[in-house]
Design brief:
By secondary structure, this protein is α/β, with parallel strands linked by helices. The protein folds into two domains: 211 residues, Rossmann fold (3-Layer(aba) Sandwich), CATH 3.40.50; 154 residues, no CATH class. Helix content is 31%, strand content 23%. Strands 2-3-4-1-5 form a five-stranded parallel beta sheet. Strands 6-7-15-14-8 form a five-stranded mixed beta sheet, with helices on one face. A four-stranded mixed beta sheet has the order 10-16-12-11. Helix 1 packs across helix 3. The longest helix is centred in the N-terminal third of the chain and has 16 residues. It is globular and about 75 Å long.
Length: 379
């Protein structure tokens, strides 16, 4: 379902260990309608929560459901704009990677996208006439009849550019579709908000000016969409990105703020282990020896095996690992933080050069350490 998909996807996210990032909606609410701010493109690596955010926005804006029950206890409910925009728009949500898969390849996927969305629009707006294979015409006709603006959410918008660069005709057709939707009459009149996510910035691709009206938000300036969490010892602000490992390794906010005050470096990339001298929580990365039972298993989202120890429980720990990356404006993004020690890369990691000192450190570390087995992390 592409039109007003509802709230089920975000509801399932809330049932997991979801960290409240709904303050992002306050930012997108301020971006609505304005030609200079309503086109947003967020680029981040895989597993950085882009799809989670897309599902959250779809659930909030879609007039196809009542999602008050999902957001009433989240931060956005405290904002003045909360009631003004919740469930007020027709939302079109497209996961380009999934649509390529459903089309069984890139060839012809643009036609597949247009026909699929137009079919649902025809069901939703049965009294309005438009071509069933021309999405641009459909949106314009619906807007002219209803005066209702659309919210577009495109997940993995760059999948076609990124993974199928040799499909030149299809890429050209895709660019024409994006240009038709987000520039000119439709972009100006019929679009309230367009929110796209991808892995690489727009500038990486030859988009022939099709997307030059989008405000590019990368990992290095993402503090605009994040939450301020504290200062380092030398007064540098730290912002939380929309997805970090705190959902997997919950840490009290006060502990994080205290840890940041122990960081005084100005380096572009910071990896520090702060010892509090007191127990602050539990760690699941433990030292092992030949008396332990170790199995090798692949964790979710990993390409190689990890040593997992059976029959052990999480251990008291007094240290917090904090990893920061410098933003374009000199502030820091919080990449991740967790209770425990800073481990080495796993030996199979493709970033490790065979025969290097790093490879030897990785082998040594993982010969003497393991993660405590938890079926929830095993692929």
């Amino acid at each position: 379902m592409y039109i007003n998909d509802g709230k089920l996807n975000f509801q399932n996210i809330l049932l997991s260990e979801y960290i409240d990032k709904s303050s992002l909606i306050s930012y997108t609410n301020k971006s609505l309608y304005s030609p200079s701010t309503k086109f947003l493109c967020v680029s981040r690596p895989r597993r950085f929560g882009k799809s989670y955010t897309a599902n959250m926005l779809a659930a909030y804006y879609s007039k196809g459901c009542d999602s008050h029950d999902l957001f009433s206890k989240l931060e956005i409910s405290k904002e003045e704009s909360y009631e003004k925009y919740i469930n007020k728009f027709n939302v079109i949500t497209l996961d380009i990677q999934s649509m390529i898969a459903l089309n069984q390849g890139a060839k012809g996927v643009v036609s597949y996208i247009e026909k699929s969305v137009c079919k649902e629009l025809a069901d939703e707006f049965s009294d309005i006439h438009f071509s069933k294979d021309n999405l641009v015409e459909a949106i314009l006709n619906i807007f002219n009849k209803t005066n209702e603006k659309f919210v577009f959410i495109l997940d993995e918008y760059d999948c076609l550019f990124r993974d199928y660069p040799n499909e030149k005709e299809e890429v050209k057709a895709y660019l024409n579709l994006l240009r038709g939707l987000f520039k000119g009459a439709i972009g100006d009149r019929a679009v309230a908000l367009a929110y796209m996510t991808g892995i690489f910035p727009i500038g990486r691709y030859d988009t022939q000016s099709a997307l030059n009206n989008f405000d590019q938000i990368s990992m290095l300036n993402t503090f605009r969409l994040g939450k301020f969490v504290g200062f380092t010892d030398n007064g540098i602000k730290v912002f939380d990105r929309n997805d970090n490992h705190s959902s997997v390794h919950p840490v009290a906010e006060e502990i994080l703020k205290e840890a940041l005050l122990h960081i005084s470096t100005c380096e572009d990339y910071v990896k520090e282990t702060i010892n509090f001298g007191r127990i602050i929580g539990k760690t699941t990365c433990v030292k092992v020896d030949n008396t332990d039972t170790i199995i090798m298993a692949r964790r979710k989202g990993r390409k190689g095996p990890t040593p997992l120890v059976l029959g052990r429980t999480a251990e008291d720990c007094s240290s917090l690992v904090v990893i920061l990356r410098k933003c374009d404006d000199g502030n820091y993004i919080l990449v991740t933080y967790f209770i425990g020690i800073l481990s080495e890369r796993e030996p199979w990691d493709p970033a490790i050069i065979p025969g290097s000192a790093e490879e030897q450190r990785a082998i040594t570390f993982w010969n003497t350490h393991a993660l405590i087995y938890d079926e929830r992390i095993v692929a």
